[in-house]
Specification:
mainly alpha; flat; disordered N terminus
């Protein structure tokens, strides 16, 4: 059974308190289960590491000129790149289990009204992260790689290093995966009273500028990927404000 956080108890009742050792023991068990889930996912995916890399590199390989291939400029790259990809894919697969273990650790210390909002936020954060990855792969990658492969000099062959390509797409995956968490972050801040809906709505012009600034910093130096990150960030912020109004209205009054 999960340890209760000091000062709180399920459904807002009084907490008699537990020793610090009990909390640390509970945390260790949750971490071990999360690591075990990651290890199982990695062992299941690693035999298909090369196939995973083929799938990941398809958006670029489909646009490369005839007669060109991807290359490995380092001795260990043919092993390390698929290995790294398998580990990251395992983390994505195991993420629901990792977040569930986190939830089971903190849930006993939440009040009832906090639990009601925490569960939807937890599920939404997982779904939105996966949607961000899918948006990057199916929408952003074809447009970005199509742009890059079409503007190069005619006498320059496009033969991308497999490790550099992996680092490039991981950066984009993280950028879009995190960006799609904006509605969840907005609702959390509103529910905590850090911000209010009307105040954030009044700052909308600055938010839009901030989205394009972040898009410029987190994506390659081309206007396509910057816009494809900035516009969804803005729309997701608007979605966070929309749902934040319901949270703000449902907050218990002092």
């Amino acid at each position: 059974m999960a340890a209760q956080a000091p000062g709180k108890a399920p459904d807002g009742q009084a907490d008699e308190g537990q020793p610090l050792v009990a909390h640390l023991t509970e945390l260790r068990e949750r971490l071990l289960r999360a690591v075990l889930a990651l290890l199982i996912a990695f062992l299941a995916l690693y035999p298909f590491a090369n196939e995973l890399y083929q799938w990941l590199s398809e958006p670029l390989r489909a646009l490369m000129p005839a007669g060109t291939t991807m290359i490995a400029t380092e001795v260990a790259s043919p092993f390390l790149a698929p290995f790294k990809l398998s580990l990251l894919a395992a983390l994505c697969v195991a993420m629901p289990v990792v977040l569930y273990q986190l939830w089971m650790f903190v849930a006993p210390g939440l009040y009832l009204h906090e639990k009601k909002i925490a569960v939807p936020l937890l599920v939404s954060s997982i779904v939105l992260f996966y949607l961000g990855l899918a948006f990057a792969y199916f929408v952003v990658f074809p447009l970005v790689f199509g742009f890059f492969t079409s503007i190069g000099p005619e006498n320059v062959a496009v033969m991308t290093d497999i490790t550099r390509y992996l680092d490039f797409v991981i950066k984009l995956f993280l950028a879009f995966g995190i960006a799609f968490e904006i509605p969840v972050a907005t609702v959390i801040l509103i529910s905590m009273g850090v911000i209010d809906v009307q105040g954030m709505a009044n700052k909308r012009p600055y938010i839009i500028i901030g989205c394009f600034t972040i898009g410029m910093l987190m994506t390659p130096p081309d206007i396509i990927s910057q816009v494809l990150l900035a516009v969804p960030m803005w729309l997701l912020f608007e979605a966070g404000l929309f749902f934040g109004r319901f949270v703000e209205q449902s907050e218990p009054q002092d």
